[in-house]
Amino acid sequence: MNLPLNLAGLSVPLPPASSPQFINLYTESQPRQALSTARELTEGLIAGKASVAPKFFYDGLGSKLFEAITELDEYYPTRTEAGIFEACHAQIAATLAEAGIHRPCLIDLGAGNCAKATALIPHLHPDQYVPIDISVEFLKGAAEQVQNSFPTLDIVGLGMDFSARLMLPEEVQSHDRVFFYPGSSLGNFSPDEALQFLQHIANPAQGKARGLLLGIDLVKDTVTLEAAYDDALGVTAAFNKNLLLNVNTLLQSDFKVRQWRHVALFNAAQSRIEMHLEATCDLSVRWPGHERRFRAGERIHTENSYKYTLEGMKALLQQAGFRHIQHWTDPNQWFALFWAAV
Ligand code: AVJ
User: Fold this and answer.
1) What does the pLDDT read at residue 3?
2) Helix, strand, coil percentages, rounded to 5, for the chain
3) DSSP bridge pairs for 132
């Protein structure tokens, strides 16, 4: 907090805050959270078609592996989105100003290393910056870096699993909220779930949002898409397999990483990249109270990453209740940035 200090009637500003506020609402160490996580993982693992939700990629190492993915040649989304921001930040700032939003509260959903917001903050001049991520320790470090770059910015970091429910504490400024959902992370939801999530943000009584700045990956040729999720170096394979190590920690299970193979494919009918882990031999996994056998070739579904068309995303945003929808894209139309007002 940057409150003025009152000395003999003189108001002397304090030096800038050196560390951001941080509120952790996702505490794996708390028995209640640990129990519901164990239930969720068990349910997915004992199902006929086994699955683990993609939020379980992001332990400390997972967040670092994802950061490495964003630097790969094959992984075009991060680079392409950054290019759109660079080319269009003045138009984006003008769009917000036209909507009467001058000092937004920028709420960064799945902020990770906060790199995208760091590039945007000098152009949007937020009053408050609220990075949110499930990877709590990683986010703490990133929020401190942002504070170093912008010493006077009011930052409220939130450790939170917002895929379940987006509930913001009262420390988050309630006026001029702009939700920032970059990187195409909305693509992890099915279109139905995405609609529900967007409806929640667009509902004035719930999100108290003025608008949404959304980055979304677009449908393109299968070769480009599949290469982005199966890179030559094997970083995405490591990112996918690391999920098993995180599950071992959370569930006390005994997955052996070497028994699994990374699979990424574009499911054109559903317009989504799918990632799976495939058993390379007959094997069994044990955790307290359970055992699951896998046949060689059997898979655990770990991620869907839906790809949209410009028209499809515009329709979804309209259906969710947003207005004045605009978008910016790169010359190849590989990625799009949408503005949607409430
Ligand atoms: C963080 C969900 C946007 O789907 O492209 C990257 C995650 N998975 N490589 C994506 C991811 C494999 C990423 N999102």
Assistant:
1) 45
2) 40, 25, 35
3) 109, 158
Query: What's the DSSP call for residue 17?
Result: P
pLDDT score for 218: 98
Nearest-CA residue for atom 1 of ligand 1: 185
Nearest ligand 1 atom to the CA of 66 is 6
pLDDT at 53 over 90: yes
The contacts of residue 74 (CB under 8 Å, 6+ apart) are 227, 228, 230, 231, 232
Q: Which two tokens stand for residue 92?
A: 């984006």
* Cβ < 6 A, ligand 1 pocket: 69, 77, 183-185, 187-188, 229, 236, 303, 305
Helix (H) or strand (E) holding 61: helix 60-69
* 198: Cβ contacts below 8 Å, ≥ 6 apart: 186, 212, 316, 317, 320, 321, 322
Cα(310) to ligand 1 centroid in Å equals: 19
Question: How many angstroms separate the alpha carbon of residue 69 from the centre of ligand 1?
Answer: 9
Neighbours of 274 (CB within 10 A): 17
Pocket test for ligand 1, best of 81, 135, 185 (most atoms within 8 A of CB): 185
